Queue: 2 jobs
Job 1
Amino acid sequence: MNKSSSCRGATFCTTKILKILHKLPERMKPNNEECEQCVKILEELENIDDDCERHGIKFVKTQDLKIADKFGASNYPVLMYFENGIGGVFEGDLEEEEEVLQWLIQQRTEDRIELITRVMLEKMVEETQYLAVYFYKQNCNICEQILEELEKIDDECDVYGIHLVRIQDPQLAKRYGIKTFPALVYFRNGNPLLFEGDLQNEQSVLEWLIDDDNRELADEIEAVNERMLARLLNESPFLAVFFYDEDCPECEEILQALEEIDGEADLFGIDFVKICSAQAAADQGLHTLPALMYFRKKKPMVYDGDLTQSGKVLDWLTSQDVFEIRNEIEEVNKKMLEKLLEENEYVTVFFYEPNAEESRIIMEKLENIDSETDNFDIKFVKMADARYARKWGVTHLPAIVYFRKRFPSIYRGDLHSEADVLEWLRKNRFRQPELNLFMYALMAIMVAFLIYTGFLLQCFKTSPTTVVVQHQKQT
């Protein structure tokens, strides 16, 4: 696995591979027999020092208890292997130097899930953004079988910026609500999430780890790497990406402002992520950072305003000019539809069933009249929400609902005839002004009648005789 330098606290982080032997000092030994064991192991390990060197593994030893404690060593002697700051503990027999050598070579050349200590885990939880921890017990056949399966997705996890490690610590497991073994806990910026699926299905585990809903944290913009960004661009129809670099004095202030609208953007169906990669920015044509780019089905737009003004950024992200894709019926959720109904007098919604063949066919036909509805000043969108459709009287999908000032009208004609749909929309759109004139005239007649009736009643109260005489004279 390509270990990152997220475990920055390790004092033995080097560009080369580093292996450490912890040995208890003489004065700490309870008896001479234990000391003799350390000496014997050291003599055996001396036999493989040259082999380790040939494989690029630097072999060192230490009697410093402070260093041992720093990495959580509790039983001595212990052998640890470090690569780019992330350590692993040897579980085998230290007196079998060939076994040790094979393990070290395997760690150096293959992708393995490292065994870590409690101290290492606590440090990694603090410093690693995405960390998956496999809790298991010794002498557990199922645990070992599942571990072998998880080894198959270790590479893929690393590609998505997720560190996968393992630990044997039943007491620590209780802290995270683990009652049975094995178990997998996913830490997102230190926030734990327990996997409740089938651990024996490694692909299911991988999908769970990279799922946006599981990676995402409330009110916090998710950090991604290049691989995850590419995946989001393929899968997310509305994606806002904040590009920044480490040497950016104003980026922290901008991130704090943008995190104020992260939750609101999510309600509008907009995924919000951040990436610290000059290469990823250059791939999108950005050469000046920081920058905010909004992708609507991979079509990018760059925000040119003040990024610290979070309210204006949100208005831009949810504005119709940015939201609309020409000659395509845009997908909306409830929050976006409510905004459209507030801002537009005429809105048409195609309610459909996802993964339904009839809905797909009708949708393709309706795409042909999207530009014509724009000419009628009608906003045309689509929505896959049967429950919300029932709010407007729709009992069967697919269906079309036309809104004028939020007042709904359901199309009862042939949905497969886009020409009929367009004609129905046109008649509804341009019938309305005539109806308005009729309503105003009707209201004027009613007001005049009420005024005249009030006048007659007033006259009857003051002088009924006079009213009758005048009526007779008029007759």
Job 2
Amino acid sequence: MALAISQTDQTLFFSGELDRDTLMMHSPFTLLNKLQGEVIFDFSALTNVDSAGLAWLIQQIARAKTLKIKIEIIKVPAQLLSLAKVSAVTDILPITN
């Protein structure tokens, strides 16, 4: 499968798989360079997330801080929540629901 990322205003919609195989197609991730203020990552259409996807997400959060962008993550799949809990990083993920 693939990863598709689309944008509507300040919201980035992720669909497909966020894993080590699909992330290479979006490296470097440049969409944050075009945004400012508050940005929403909508994960409602993600079907698979692995530890590489979680690491990539943490990297984007750190990068957003340097760009003075606030990220809000919504509609997080259970698989990503489980990985975050096992990795003890839920506190650094800006999940709102």
